[in-house]
Amino acid sequence: MRILVQKFGGTSVSNAEARKHVIRHIRKALQEEYKLVVVVSAMGRKGEPYATDTLLELVSDTGSRLPEREKDMLLYCGEMISAVTLCGLLHAEGIPASVLNGGQAGILTNDTFGNAQILSINPARVMDLLQEGQVVIVTGFQGRTATDDITTLGRGGSDTTATALGVALHADIVDIFTDVDGILTADPKIVHDARQLPQISFTEICNMAYNGAKVIHPRAVEIAMQANMPVRVRSTFAESEGTLVTGLSEAREAGGRVGDRTVTAIAHVANVTQIQISQEEGQYDLQLKVFKAMAQESISVDFINVYPSGLVFTVSDQVADRAATTLREMGYDPKVLTGCAKVSVIGGGITGVPGIMARIVEALTEQDVTILQSADSNITIWVLVHGKDMIRAVQALHTKFLLNE
Ligand code: ASP
Ligand code: MG
Fold it and tell me: What is the tens place of the pLDDT at every residue in 5-31?
């Protein structure tokens, strides 16, 4: 059985015109004789009637009091409305289709409401329906606990539903349909000559997603990567094949350029705060105390550099005040710099290639951009810059590494 999973994001199902495109992609897959699972997100974006953010607004006054368990029951409705609407359209077209919610599709999660982790998937019911020749529409970003409570997988989790089901069903491929043409070398809102990438590796896209690129949820990529299942990111509103995400060796076999290029893309995250604490003599336990305190406050820290005379790390601007207050209450005198941006240079071919950092520094110096901090892993080099320099930094790096060509 050749199985295809198609996932349609919120903007792809938001109005009648968009849904016509969805039907077109479904028809095409059926003509290609795929057994088809369709995962949908809630319709539209903030402000639109059935969007996830709109549902959240309904309880925003009482939201802080409403238990997460009940909040998940509310969020559940957005995807359900979307799924049933699509099912109606398919029946009107004479295409047999059924709707399953996450639990019915066999997605078992833990009980971390609002951000549940998938424990296992038993896709037997999906399989049965596929065998009967039905299109199986599954509501995105949800599951059920062992005690039959509804859970959601965290914002943007429909991508995760799609790849997790794809793996469980041994699908040929998972198509993530969205409102952009694929994965680009940088954010086109900032870099006007950003190019669409025909191919990219799992690790590259994962690094891009964790560093601010918003096209696909990183958790979804990790699931696909573990099972080495190819994913395509493509536009609902176009015919193009989009960007194929695979392992590096598959990409090479397919004649892709993934293996040949050094730098693939530039990503960025704004609204980052740098916190620096210098260590006075005798404060040998500084690191332990600071990071423990941040953990206790549930503040996620990033970009950590520890050195003999102190330490530096970043948090998001949102929690900067809380982090600083906590540290001051502990008797430290943190140096706090808000409104910074983290700019990442990502490429599967960076490893072991000399001169990449030199070119980064050159590009930024030419633009008078100050590097506040830097770090690297095997396929990413990060630099922290002042927020006012972010756009120039991204553009300069994009040009320096010839990503527009
Ligand atoms: N509707 C959910 C959200 O807005 C899940 C998703 O779209 O992936 O986060
Ligand atoms: Mg979404």
Answer: 999 999 999 999 999 999 999 999 999
**pLDDT band of 348, cuts 50, 70, 90:** confident
Q: What share of the chain is helix, strand, coil (3-state, %, to 5)?
A: 35, 25, 40
Measured in degrees and rounded to the nearest 5, phi and psi for residue 106 equal 95, 15
| Residue 392 pLDDT > 90 | yes
Q: Please state, in angstroms and as integers, the Cα–Cα distance from residue 143 to each residue in 63, 103, 117, 196, 248, following that order.
A: 22, 5, 9, 34, 31
Is the CB of 50 inside a 6 Å radius of any atom of ligand 1?
no
Is 45 near ligand 1, meaning CB less than 6 Å away? no
Mutate to test the pocket of ligand 1, among 82, 141, 142, 150 (most ligand atoms within 8 A of CB): 141
How many angstroms separate the alpha carbon of residue 311 from the centre of ligand 2? 37
Instruction: Tell me the C-alpha to C-alpha distance, in Å, between residue 100 and each of 123, 192, 327, 376.
Output: 11, 41, 48, 43
Nearest ligand 1 atom to the CA of 159 is: 8
The candidate with the shortest Cα–Cα distance to 241, out of 224, 254, 228, is 254
Residue 12 beta carbon below 6 angstroms from any ligand 1 atom = no
- Of ligand 1's listed atoms, the one at least distance from the Cα of 158 is 8
**Ligand 1 proximity of 52 Cβ (cutoff 6 Å):** yes
Alpha helices per DSSP H over 60-187? 68-92, 124-131, 158-168
What is the atom index within ligand 1 of the atom nearest the CA of 154? 9
pLDDT band for 341, please (50, 70, 90 cuts). very high
CA of 202 to the centre of ligand 2 (A): 20
Q: What is the pLDDT of residues 119-152, one digit of tens each?
A: 999 999 999 999 999 999 999 999 999 999 999 9
Give me 169's structure tokens: 């069903």
Q: Between residues 276 and 308, which one has the greater pLDDT?
A: 276
pLDDT of 229 higher than 60:
yes
Q: What is the mean pLDDT of the chain?
A: 94
